Amino acid sequence: MVPANQAPAASPSVRRATRVGFFMAGFGLSVWAPLVPFVRARIEMSDALFGMLLLCVGIGSLTWMPLSGMLVARQGIRPVILGSVALLALALAAMALTHSIAILAVALFCFGGSLGVIDVAFNIQGVMVERDTGKRYMSNFHGMFSLGSICGALSLTSALTLGLAPATGTLLMIGLIVLANLAVSPGLLRERAPAGGVAFRRPSGPVLLVGSLCFIVYLAEGAVLDWSALYLTETKALEVAKGGLGYASFALMVTLGRFLGAPVVSSLGTARVIGFGGVLAAAGIVLTLVTDQWGLALLGYGLCGLGCANVSPVLISSLSRQQAMPVNQAITAATTIGFAGVLAGPAVIGVIAHHASLTLAFALLAALLLGLCLGCRRFTD
Question: Which residues of 49-73 are buried (b: 16+ CB within 10 A; e: fewer)?
Fold first, then answer.
């Protein structure tokens, strides 16, 4: 039953709110990147301590994401998202203004936690939109997140380049995030699950499979983000200043692949998108390993991004068709497992690179991506 004064999930206002929400979630996440040098300059600390502080973001996400399904079930999507946006705004403000290491740690924890809840809640709303419309929108929704990540980093970078103080620029970005979410709040669903739900349920077999496959895709993203620049500059003779082009190629193709993905997903179905995506992503990584030309290596990272682009959206979407768990709890569990890959990826690559080589680490990543072909056989549509 749809609560009073709530548009049905199939309505244009709900789809618009979901697109804007995913965009602003990516926007809010990427605002942190341009702030990092200013935070380091403002608060004196060692590189080791700063690395430990950055763990607070991931710890916050992994701590709060398992609670997201319960919160949505008991309160509805709208209050959960608006409350999380308010916390995100406070966290960003603290990160931009504080001179205290302790406050920065708490702010980073809340930053990761609020974004984790927002991510799960919008995925739940996205699945409900697909369920009620009978159409595939998840690739487009995730594409909006990717586009928001690009725009957020560029927006704050532009503001700082124009001479705005970091605090002023950040407060401006916070204002945009809050206003955008308030503007579309009538399209955020308030439907609650029967009996309010539980905090966390052990994932069933199908949900665990989805989470494990998401883990591989997110692990690849984390590995490319943190290690592609080093690999390109050390083994492909790319200038250090251009090292970021590897992840830029990956992210660009992820974004394009998601915006162009709806007809592809509708034509191929879930299983083929996962299987073909895994093969293409693995081929991209192999290309970066075998070529001596950094230009072809960039193409390889782009192909990896294109292969990964629609895998996680169709996996999350598939959870609406399983019967083992309530959808909100299934999405919460699978997303939490998947997100662990973002944190584990860089660490795993680092350990392998330390004991063997970075080339071997990326080769093993390619093998894992090929493993998506084995998992895709469990999906029938």
Answer: eeeebeebbbbbbbebbbbbbbbbb
